[in-house]
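note to self — DONT lose this again. spent like an hour looking for the file last time. sequence + predicted structure for the chain T wanted, 98 res
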Amino acid sequence: MPWITETEDHLTLSIRVIPRASRDSIQGIHGDTLKIRIQAPPVEGKANAYLVKFLSKQWKVSRACIQILSGETGRNKRLRISNPSDELRKTLLSIGDG
């Protein structure tokens, strides 16, 4: 799957963020990215902070384990999730299967 890259100690995800959505949700795979809608506006890094907080709650990982590698100012981003659990790996891989 081009939207996710696995190594032993981390996952790298390609995502497309839609800010100012009516509700937060993970929409699924769109092309070669994972589409995520968030309510936060794209102002002064608020959307990035909100995105990390939302994903940490959804996937039950520490905020410190989620790092934005690229795309700080755009909608297309690459995220790294350090030390993912086996459960998280299964959850993310099932998104791609569905």
